[in-house]
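If your schedule permits, I should be very grateful for your opinion on a structural question. What I wish to show you is a protein chain and, alongside it, a tokenised description of its three-dimensional fold. Would you kindly read the sequence against the tokens and tell me how you understand this chain to fold? Here, with my thanks, is the record as I have it:

===
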Amino acid sequence: MEAIRDEATRPVRLFCQDESRFGLMPITRDRITLSGVKPIQVQKPGYQNFYLYGAVEPTTGERFLLERPNLDSDGFQDFLDGFSRRFPQSTNILILDNGRFHKARALSIPENVRLIFLPPYSPELNPIERLWEDLKGHLAFDLHETLSELKERVSEKLRSYTDEAVASLTGYQYLVAAASA
């Protein structure tokens, strides 16, 4: 990161990036009930879904999200291009996992974006996972009839997050310290 900071002629910002799937299959969580009482969960299997590509700045809670129908290199390229346009005044470091589409040869990384890959199989190091977990916790047990209904519910919940709330969820101390160094 220091090398990036040295070469940067504009402010450097640190973001954490990931994708998450949202679909009509209801999200379930554990429930607390009286002893001997089994919780009832309405199930209506649905197999339609969409993906959210997202990046969060843990120090401020600022974020960029893009909805796509698929998880692939074309979607990631669209995300990178939109992300670059959203934060044009800075050099933006994206910390991300090792998804195959993140390393596709056809990708064109914008000039104001730098990619830093996490070690393999370490989602616990990526703070945006906590945002996905919180969001899905709010959607748990909801039964959506259509994909557009689910998309509206997800958008509604995402709009309700303040920057402070997102920073509180994603502000891992080691990243905040690294970004401030």
